[in-house]
Amino acid sequence: PVFSGTVNWDGPLRIKATTTGPSSTIAKIIRMVVEDAQAHEAPVQRLADAIAGPFVYTVMTLSAATFSFWYLLGTHLFPEVLLNDISGPDGDSLLLSLKLAVDVLVVSCPCALGLATPTAILIGTSMGAKRGLLIRGGDVLERLAGIDAIVLDKTGTLTKGKPVVTSIASLAYDGMEILRLAAAVEKTALHPIANAITKEAELCKLDIPTTSGQLTQPGFGCLAEVDGRLVAVGNLDWVHNRFETKASPTELSDLGKRLEFVPSSEASSSNQSKSIAYIGREGEGIIGAIAISDVLRDDAKSTVDRLKQEGIATYILSGDRKEAVEGIGETVGIRSENRRSSLTPQEKAGIISTLQGEGHRVAMVGDGINDAPSLAAADVGIAMRTHSKENAASDAASVVLLGNRLSQVVDALSLSKATMAKVHQNLAWAVAYNIVAIPIAAGALLPQFDFAMTPSLSGGLMALSSIFVVSNSLLLQLHGSFQKAEKTRTG
């Protein structure tokens, strides 16, 4: 059986549906995910809840202590307090004690503590959604605010993810034959490089043969049977090791040299981001190669610069060739020791785990199935929405950039920090209010300043405390960077 909810990202799959509609497993999973996301509390919220619970019993105890003190002892120590209006026209100590005890109960505001976090989180996630940031829970915002290292994928993240074929080289065949075989193998894949190969074949109006036995190994390449023989398309080592017959080092070197002569002007402008897909066939080994160049995103360098200004270390981890990764890394300004190439998805996740072991709080930004393990391993996974539909990357990520702009990474970080700042402001207000208001309500100023709250004044202050917390959270909508971004889009 193929379980409902399985993501078939690469290769064709023929299945028979046995259940449909709301009774299907995937529908149940979606309901569970939505409910789970709504229930995700930030750790600071759990702290506030832990305080708010005992706080209620503490206030009740303080109220009883206030009554006991003023009724049994206070009015004898400070008899002048009975002249205050709160004790009534007859200076009744019982009435004064009752009113002060009620003041303590009414003025205390555990609801301000309870509202401090969820109101700010609600405004923050709503603002993110309006601006193309899908943030899955308050806990994600809190983790995102503490990020000090960001790992970036190359293809589709730092680059536009829309590469084009720039040259084709072959050892013994016509270039169109190499393109035809590669397109046949890659036509069911959704990686940007596969899309570039199939698109080029369509532009050349090639007759793409049918295939069978497709096999995809994320991060390495694809394999399929074409015209009765196995054909592999992928990186050099993977394709080279697929077949018993192997091309000689001299032939491989000659193949690489032929790819250097690129007639396309578009390719030369993005030469630093060139990737090479090698094509091998059963009984022959590697028979050709296709160079694919991708264009750097317009906001890639500015985004890396802004991250540096925020004191966040940036890394580039890619499965692509060293030359392509080094070129892109140098262009956007990522330090040479933070560039890693020719990595498998598992190796990417391992490097992220190593960074975490060194004490870094790591966010990973990626766009495809190759990045899913890394997105899941990072403290916060951020997925670029390069396709109109969900993919393995967005499934594994905590934040999805629906606008498909790399600059949204900085927006998400800025929003998370602003949101957590509001949370801390709200909590500080709630604690400070109760620390100041409860002693005054208990009559601390009554002997010296002849001032005491009435229950009605206490109720008004309690309501204002909650209103302040909500209003302060609403001020998050005036967050500077988002106002500028909104004006830029409107203009």
Automatic annotation (TrEMBL):
Localisation: Membrane
GO biological process assignments: copper ion homeostasis
Stretches that traverse the bilayer: 55-73, 100-123, 427-446, 458-478
UniProt cross-references to SUPFAM superfamilies, sorted A to Z: Calcium ATPase, transmembrane domain M, HAD-like, Metal cation-transporting ATPase, ATP-binding domain N
Main location: membrane
Its membrane topology: Multi-pass membrane protein
GO cellular component: membrane
GO-annotated molecular function: ATP binding; ATP hydrolysis activity; copper ion binding; P-type divalent copper transporter activity
Pfam families: Hydrolase
Keyword terms: ATP-binding, Membrane, Metal-binding, Nucleotide-binding, Translocase, Transmembrane, Transmembrane helix
Recorded superkingdom: Eukaryota
Family: Belongs to the cation transport ATPase (P-type) (TC 3.A.3) family. Type IB subfamily.
Name of this chain's protein: HMA domain-containing protein
Organism: Aegilops tauschii subsp. strangulata
